[in-house]
Amino acid sequence: MTIVITGATGRLGRHVVAGLRENAGTVVAAVRNPEKAAGLGVEVREADYDRPETLDAAFAGAGKVLLISGDAVGSRVPQHQAVVEAAQKAGVHHLVYTSAPHADDTPLVLAPEHKATEEIIRASGVPFTILRNNWYTENYAPAAHQAIAAGELIGSAGSGRVASATRADFAAGAVAVLTGTGHEGKVYELSGDVAWTFDDLAAEISALAGRTIPYRNVSTDEHREALIAAGVPAESAGFAVALDRNIAEGTLADATGDLAALIGRPTTPLREGLAAALKDA
Description:
The chain is an alpha/beta fold. The chain folds into two domains: 131 residues, 3-Layer(aba) Sandwich (Rossmann fold), CATH 3.40.50; 106 residues, Alpha-Beta Complex (UDP-galactose 4-epimerase, domain 1), CATH 3.90.25. The protein is built from eleven helices and eleven strands. The chain has a seven-stranded parallel sheet, with helices on both faces. Helix 4 links the parallel strand 5 and strand 6. The longest helix is centred in the N-terminal third of the chain and has 15 residues. The protein is globular and about 55 Å long. Pfam families: NAD_binding_10. It comes from Amycolatopsis endophytica. Its EC number is 1.6.5.2. InterPro entries: NAD(P)-bd_dom, NAD(P)-bd_dom_sf, NmrA-type_oxidoreductase.
């Protein structure tokens, strides 16, 4: 069985490849820049979402494909469609996609492209599994570093909660689906076991820093201005504020237990995941 992983040199993809090396047959890293795949320990093939002609060769002989969503916001739908069409041509019998929480029914700022991709996959006729990953704990490493430097964590999420897990947790879920049976046609809402608040996040940052770092909730305008003043580009600041607004609305609060069930263990606690992320950042 040949399993092809797109985006295999990304931070999630590398975890998936490492997990599959221990549990699967032939693993192929399908990547835009093959030179960056040195050291993965698997076969490497060129696969550029923006050059569909590379995808046919990348998927040749594939039984399963993991489509890790691209990072080019605004371009992902045509990119993902090219991957799905290549999977069709290759006769892939199981396509797994990393989506967003409740992608078909949520105001989450990231959801529309994921919803459109899910629709393309369903229409393709290729047997599929949708992995709707909640937020990655590692995404808060920059905010933690900034909070430690500033002495406070600033945000505009109010009392909203985030059921995050680590990339390694989500990767383990993908490995379980790719190496297991009976997952076709299923949509998994994957999350950490605990939905934490930003007061909780501040408490964990405080524990890691060895001093009290409170969470200060501010208005969206104040949040945006604070981020820009800290050197965050305006577009990125706008995204962060929109995401906090979504969090305040409850879009990332669903701690489902599906991920722990897939991987056969509890998900990584917030403090442990954040501590590792701070070391790597």
